[in-house]
Amino acid sequence: MLGLIQDRPLLLSSLIEHAALYHGDREVVSRTVEGPIHRTNWREINARAKRLANALVALGVKPGDRVATMAWNGYRHVELYYAVSGMGAVLHTINPRLFPEQIEYIANHAEDTLLFFDATFAPLVEKLAPRFKTIRNIVALTDKAHLPAINVSGLLCYEEMLAAQPDRFEWPQFDERTASSLCYTSGTTGNPKGVLYTHRSTVLHSFSGCSADGLGISSGESILLIVPLFHVNGWGVAYSAAMSGAKLVLPGPALDGRSVYELLAKEACTLTLGVPTVWLMLLDYIEQNRASLNLSDIKLKRVIIGGSAAPRAMIEKFRDLFGAFVVHAWGMTEMSPIGTVGHLLPKHAGLSTEKITAVQVKQGRAIYGVEMKIVGEDGKELQRDGKAFGDLLVRGPWVTRGYFKNDDAVIDEQGWFRTGDVATLDPDGYMQITDRSKDVIKSGGEWISSIDLENAAVAHPAVQEAAVIGIAHNKWGERPLLVVIKKSGATVTREELLAFLGDKVAKWWLPDDVVFVDTLPHTATGKLQKTTLRDQFRTYRLPTDSAA
Ligand code: AMP
Q1: Mutation test of ligand 1: which of 182, 189, 328, 330 has the most ligand atoms closer than 8 Å to its C-beta?
Q2: What is the chain's mean pLDDT, rounded?
C-alpha cells in the first residue's frame, strides 16, 4: 500500500524561492573580479536568476541543454547555479585550472551550448573559442564598462542581458530525477569524466549539509566559501546556504592569505570551508604578520577541511589561534561530494586536547544517506577495527551510478561504487583515508600509508609541504621516499627529519630517503599529483637498495 503524502518533486528552484521568501534580506557578499566588494541578498539573487532564466530562454536554451561556466566564487555564479538548473537546463561548471586541452575536451564532450566566463579567463576563452564545437554564445560575467576586449564571435555582456529581461519567471515543475548540474573529475590519467547530478540528489545532499551532524549550515552562520563553485558544486554550500538562509561570503579570485583573512574579519564569518592548500596560505600570512593583526577580529567557530587530508598541525593551529574547531570531511566528485564528516561523539566529552585532535585527524563518520564498507583484495568486507585497511566502497542517493556519455560500469550489482581510496573504519564509525589505492606503498607485502607519513612530516616546523611516494626496491618491492618543500628561510636536514618521524610512525614505515625540492606538482583541484612525482623520480635509486 502506498502512502498518502504529496509527491512534490525535489527541485533546486524551491531552494532559492525559499531563501528569497524567508531569508530575503540575508546577505550574499562577493569580492568581485574587478576588485571592490559587492553586497546583495537572497531576494535579489532570486530576482536576477529569474531575469537570467528569461535571457536563457531568449537565447534558445532548452531543458537538458548544457550551459557552461568558467567563473570564480561570486554572486553572478550563484545566479547561474539557480537560473540554469531552475529552468531545467544543466549547469556545467568548468574548472578553469584544467589544462586548456582538457577544457576543450570537456566543453565538446558535454556539448555545451553557452559559456559564461569571468574576465580573468578572457585570454583563455579567446584562445579556446575557435575549438569549441557546440557553444553558440559566450557571455562575459560583467557590465558594459568592463567588457574584455577579445576577439570572440557572439560575445555577450551579462549585465546587459539581465537588464533587458523581466524579473518574473515561473520556475517549471518537472521530474526530480532531471539532471541539474555536471562536473568533470580531473582524474590523474585518461580523459576527465562527467558526473551528472540530479535535482533530487542535490536537494537531498543539501539537507545533509544543513544537518547538525553534517556541515551544520543554518541561518545563523556567516559562511566564507573558499571551495570553488567549479569544484563539485562548491561542496553543495551554495544550495545549503539558500535552504537555511545563511549569509554567504564569496572570495572571488583572491585566495591569498591577506584577502581571506580580511573577509573572515570584516564579514564576521563563523564557518569557512576549503582544501588544506588555502589554509596553509592563510596560516602562513598570519605567522608573517602576527604583530600587526588583532586575532580577536576573527569570529570563526568551525573550519571544514576536505579534498585532501587535514594535517594535525593545521587542526592545532586553528584551535590555538582562533579557538576554531576543524571539522575534517571527506568526499569526492562522484559523491556530490560529501561522504563523511568529523564531529565528536558524546563519549569524547572531557577528553584531553591531544585525544580530541586524534579524533579530528580521521576523516569522520558517514553522514546519513551514505553507506560505506572496506574490502580486501579478495573483495571480502574487512573488520571495522580501525586497523585493517582496504578499498573503500560507497553507495547512496547522491552517489553516481555512471559517467556522462560513458558506458563503463562503475557500480557493482549491489550498487557499490569503488572510491579508489584505501581506508580504515574504526568501531565508532570513523573512517581514515590511508591512501589513494594507486598511491599506497607496498613494502614486503604490507601496505604503508603515504598520507600518514606526509602528515607526520608536515608537523615539523621547517616543512612547508611533503609528499611520499613508493620507489621500486630490490628487496622490499617498494620503499617510501619523502619529498619535502622547506618553509622559506627554514633549515632542516635529512637526518633531522628522519629522527623527527622516528617516534611518530612504525619503524618499518620510515622513509628510506629524503629529498628537498622547490615545488611539488598539483592537480587542478589542488591535490598532490603523485603520478607526475613518480615520473620525476622514476630513475631514482634509494640508498638502501642493494641494486643501486
Ligand atoms: P575530488 O573528486 O576531486 O573531490 O577528489 C576526491 C578524492 O579526494 C577522494 O577520493 C580522496 O582521495 C581525496 N580526498 C577528499 N577529501 C579528503 C580528505 N579529507 N582526506 C584525504 N583525502 C581526501
Answers
A1: 330
A2: 95
Calculate how far, in angstroms, residue 442's C-alpha sits from the geometric centre of ligand 1.
21
H helix or E strand, kind and range, residue 79: helix 75-86
Return the beta strands (E) in 46-140 as ranges: 66-70, 90-93, 112-117, 137-140
Residues in contact with ligand 1 by the CB-under-6-Å rule are 185, 232, 306-309, 328-330, 332-333, 337, 363, 419-421, 433, 436, 525
pLDDT band at 159 (very low <50, low <70, confident <90, very high): very high
Question: Is 107 part of any domain?
Answer: yes
Listed residues 206, 234, 254: the one ending a domain = 254
CA-wise closest residue to 154 among 117, 187, 186? 117
Q: Could you tell me if 51 and 167 are in contact, meaning their C-beta atoms sit under 8 angstroms apart? A: yes
Per-residue model confidence as pLDDT tens digits over 309-325: 898 999 999 999 999 99
Q: Distance between CA 452 and CA 422 in Å, rounded?
A: 12
Q: Name the one residue in this structure whose C-alpha cell is 536576477.
A: 48
Mean pLDDT of 406-426: 95
- CATH label of the domain that carries residue 199: 3.40.50.12780
Q: Count CB atoms within 10 A of the CB of residue 511.
A: 28
Query: Are 88 and 172 contacting, i.e. CB atoms less than 8 angstroms apart?
Result: yes
d(CA 192, CA 103): 9
User: Which residue's CA lies nearest to atom 6 of ligand 1?
Assistant: 332
In this structure, what CATH number is given to the domain that contains residue 464? 3.30.300.30
**239: domain range?**
22-254
Give the per-residue pLDDT at 189.
Answer: 59
Catalytic residues: 185, 334, 442, 447
Q: Which atom of ligand 1 is nearest to the CA of 337?
A: 4
pLDDT of residue 301 exceeding 60, the answer is yes
Q: Report the alpha-carbon distance of residue 347 to residue 528 in Å, rounded.
A: 35
User: Measuring from atom 7 of ligand 1, which residue has the nearest CA?
Assistant: 332
Cα separation, 228 vs 235, whole angstroms? 8
Q: Confirm whether 461 is domain-assigned.
A: yes
| pLDDT interval class at 547 (50, 70, 90) | low
Percent of the chain with pLDDT over 90: 86
- Domain assignment present for residue 336? The answer is no
Q: Is the pLDDT of residue 443 over 90?
A: no
Q: pLDDT tens digits, residue range 532-541?
A: 999 999 999 9
Boundary residue ending a domain (233, 254, 275): 254
Residue 276, domain member (yes or no): no
How many domains is the chain partitioned into structurally?
2
- Identity of the residue numbered 233: N
Q: Determine which helix (DSSP H) or strand (DSSP E) holds 160, and give its type and residue range.
A: helix 158-163
- Taking residues 299-314, report their average pLDDT: 94
